[in-house]
Amino acid sequence: MSNIAVIGGGASGMICSIFASKNNYVTLFCNDDKVGKKLLVTGNGRCNLTNLKNFDVAYNTDILKYLKKFNQNQTIKFFESIGLVTYFDEEGRVYPLSNTAKSVIEVLVNNLNKNKVDIKQNEEVLFIENVDDKFKITTSVKNYVYDKIVIAVGSNDKFLKQLNIKYNNFSPSLVSLKTKEDTHSLAGLRLSNVEVSLELKNKKIKENGEVLFKDKGLSGICIFNLSAYLARQKNYNAKICIDLIPSLNKEDLTKLLRDRLNYNFINAKEFMQGIFNEKINNYILKMCKIKNEENITKKHIDLLTNVIKSLPFNVLGYYENSQVKSGGVSLNDLTESLQYKHNKNLYFTGEIIDVDGLCGGYNLQWAWTSGKIVGENL
Ligand SMILES: Cc1cc2nc3c(=O)[nH]c(=O)nc-3n(C[C@H](O)[C@H](O)[C@H](O)COP(=O)(O)OP(=O)(O)OC[C@H]3O[C@@H](n4cnc5c(N)ncnc54)[C@H](O)[C@@H]3O)c2cc1C
Hints:
The chain has 378 residues and is of the alpha+beta class. It is built from twelve helices and 19 strands. The protein has two domains: 223 residues, FAD/NAD(P)-binding domain (3-Layer(bba) Sandwich); 147 residues, no CATH class. The termini are close together. The mean pLDDT is 97. The protein binds flavin-adenine dinucleotide. The site of flavin-adenine dinucleotide has 32 residues, from α1 and α12.
């Protein structure tokens, strides 16, 4: 039995404490007034706790060997074993049956209590010092000494700096993107069933689904997922194109538009009515430099087709409040048990490790996987 401090009462810190407490005395420190508080905002309050599909493409790095130790099915079984009933939707996203993140927190906290984890809420860890084989921890309340510590503070690099641990800088991921184009006239508009694409140095990333327009930028799950690729390359200058009708190829769309030339529409405004809604119609015409009152003729068709199939937006940066951050301690510096290679009494879990996933439950899965692996090996 060792004395262990888990610093950070988020997803990974909680699951780690549950498993670590089977063989150790565990203290869980959290600067929030309640452990697990952040889970309340996940999945729009429903907590999308994992996903049953697409693990091969969801992460910035290969985490298969870790998932082999604790994968999505084992996660669901674990939650069932502590009392949570779950369901999944057609995209494979897993949620609590109650559709509230509060249930996830409740079962975790019940288990922490049953396992006699000493939960110290409202207690911020300020300094960590490595003294001989142990760790001295200074909190907002007092000083402690532990045999081993787990750093589970999310994308907070404070302790990495204090302990002189090298890491990849954090950049916001799963975040709305700011564009050069003024999208004020489209703000609030939600486009379903579009395809967004992002051209990277050596590949093109495509996402299908919904895009939301902001005053000077783009949002929605498709955009969040594209932002992950920009965060990973630490450069947000990029071009995103939206295909407004992915179900038609260019030729079919050209034909559709050409056929409309025979409809006796009185002007461009009327020509576009019945294709998209007014806001996006106006935006398309503006992009094509066609006035509402103008007549649409043969010469406009190719231009309209190109804009509809590839509406361009130049990304300049990101909005505040990302869901996760890309970056952190490299897996290369950790053993398979996520123990720091240069200090056997130091472990990491969750977002502080350089593993980030797309939207859909993949980030929490990493929190559960890494937390379980560390907890079990302590
Ligand atoms: C709005 C939003 C929605 C999301 N939705 C989903 C989703 O549906 N599915 C999904 O998979 N992922 C989702 N995520 C991402 C997911 O929440 C994170 O991947 C996950 O919480 C990371 O877990 P963690 O344990 O590494 O860190 P965190 O959950 O960030 O926990 C860190 C903990 O450390 C504590 N802490 C920090 N510093 C100190 C200190 N000095 N002393 C003491 N305590 C400290 C914090 O208070 C916190 O409790 C969402 C994120 C956001 C912001």
